[in-house]
Amino acid sequence: MKHAALKGTVPITFVEPHTIAPYPTDTPAHDSHGRRIDYLRVSLTDRCNMRCVYCMPALGMHFAPRPELLSDDELLLVIRAAAAAGFRKLRLTGGEPTLRPNLVELIQAMKAIPGIEQIAMTTNALRLRKLAAPLKLAGLDRVNISIDSLDPVKFRQISRGGSLDEVWAGLHAADAAGLRPLKINAVIVRGMNDDEVLALAALTLQHPWEFRFIEVMPLTGVAGLAEAGVISSTELIARIEAHFGPLEPYGQDPADPARRYRILGAPGKLGFISAVTDPFCATCNRMRLTADGRLHLCLLRDNEVDLRAAIRNGATQAEVEQIIRHAIDLKPWGHGLPEGVLPRVRGMSELGG
Ligand code: SAM
Ligand code: SF4
C-alpha cells in the first residue's frame, strides 16, 4: 500500500518497499526529467545557536523532540542506501550542524561509505574555532560559512545574538585546518544589509574566498520579510559593477547554482544564487534529508517521502535504497514561486538551505 498523508498541508508519502516497482540498482538514479541526482543535503538537527531573522521567526519556533530525529545508526543507514543509489556528495547542514552530538564520529563513518566522494558543511561557524581541525581530520572536505554583516552590532541584530568575533575565529580556524576552498554565504535583504554589499564583495580583493550572495527565499515563518526584502542578483551585480568595474565571468559548474564572477585582479570570487528571480531547476542535482528522516524533494515545495517510518518498520538497506530511488523518481521539475506556490510547512532551519 502506498498513500499520502497530510502533516499540516505537507504531502508526505509513506512507501512500503514491496509496493514500488523494483528500480534497477546497477545505474545511478536519475529523476523522471532526466536529471542525475547525486548531491544529498543532510540536515543533522533543526536546532540552532542563532536565530537569523531571515531564517526563523522571532516567536513560535517548534523544534522536533529528540526521538523524532534519526539516530546516528539510522542516519548512516540512509547515507549507505543513498550512496548505493548514486549519491556522491554530502552537505551537512541544519539548523546548526555543529550542534549535533558525535559529529566527528559521524563524519568519519560517512567518509568511509563506498561511493561518498565529498563531504561539505554549511555552518554559522560559532563552534568552528575548536571543531575545525578535528572535523578536517575526520574527513570533512570544506565549509560554507554564513556572514551577513561586517558590523558586529548589526550582525548581532540579524542573528539575534550571534558574535561576529567568534564567527571570524571559526572562519580562520577552518582556513588554517585546510577546509578549503572556503566559501562565505550572505543572504542580502533590502534595508537590512544591502548597504554592505560593496564591503562584503571587497573581501575577495584580499582573500581567495568565494563570497556568495543569496536571494532571500520566502520560507515558512519569514515569507513576509523575504517578499518585501528580496533583491535580485541582477541588481546586486549592477551595484558591484558600478563601483568595481565590469565583473569577469569565472568558470561555471553546471551543478553549482551560483553564477560566478571575479572583480578584475581579485584572488577571490563572487557567486550569485538567484533561486527566486532566476531559478536553476533545469540543472538541479540535489535532494534534502530532514533531521526527522524525510526526503524533501524540492527546497521550495512541500513534498516529502518518509524514510524514518520505513526504517522503524524494519526496512533493510536495499529497501531504503528502493524508496530513495522512488523519491528521486517523484522529484518535481521545479518550484512554483512564479505561480504563487509557496512552501508552507517547513522553515529553512529544518531544510538546511
Ligand atoms: N546554520 C547554518 C548556517 O547558517 O550556515 C546552516 C543552516 S542555514 C539554514 C543554511 C543556509 O541557508 C545559510 O547560508 C543561510 O544563510 C541560508 N538561509 C537561511 N534562511 C534563508 C532564506 N530565507 N533565504 C535564503 N537563504 C536562507
Ligand atoms: Fe541558524 Fe543558520 Fe538559520 Fe541562522 S541561518 S538561524 S545560523 S540555521
Quick description:
The chain has about 350 residues and is an alpha/beta fold.
Molecular structure report:
By secondary structure, this protein is an alpha/beta fold. It has one domain (2-351): TIM Barrel (Alpha-Beta Barrel). It is 30% helix and 19% strand. The protein has eleven helices and 14 strands. The protein is globular, with a radius of gyration of 20 Å. The two termini are 32 Å apart. The site of S-adenosylmethionine has 22 residues, from strand 5, strand 7 and helix 11.
Comma- or semicolon-separated keywords:
binds S-adenosylmethionine, globular, 11 helices, TIM Barrel, alpha/beta, disordered N terminus, binds iron/sulfur cluster, 14-stranded mixed β-sheet, 14 strands
Write the layout of secondary structure elements.
Elements lengths: L1 E6 L2 E6 L23 E5 L28 H14 L3 E5 L9 H9 L6 E6 L4 H11 L3 E5 L5 H7 L5 H14 L5 E6 L8 H10 L3 E6 L7 H7 L3 H12 L3 E2 L9 E4 L6 E5 L12 E4 L4 E3 L7 E3 L1 H5 L4 H14 L17 H4 L2
Parallel strand pairs: 2-14, 3-4, 3-12, 4-5, 5-6, 6-7, 7-8, 8-11
Antiparallel strand pairs: 1-2, 9-10, 10-11, 12-13, 13-14
Helix pairs in contact: 1-10, 2-3, 3-5
The structure holds S-adenosylmethionine and iron/sulfur cluster (SF4).
Iron/sulfur cluster binds next to helix 11.
Strand order, main sheet: write it out.
Answer: 1-2-14-13-12-3-4-5-6-7-8-11-10-9
Helix content: 25-40%
Quick one: overall form?
globular
Please provide the ordered H/E string of secondary-structure elements: EEEHEHEHEHHEHEHHEEEEEEHHH
Task: Provide the CATH topology.
Answer: TIM Barrel
Q: What is the CATH C-level name?
A: Alpha Beta
- Structure annotation, total helices: 11
Average pLDDT level: 93
* CA-atom Rg in angstroms: 20 Å
Please, what is the CATH homologous superfamily? Aldolase class I
Number of domains: 1
Q: Compounds present?
A: S-adenosylmethionine, iron/sulfur cluster
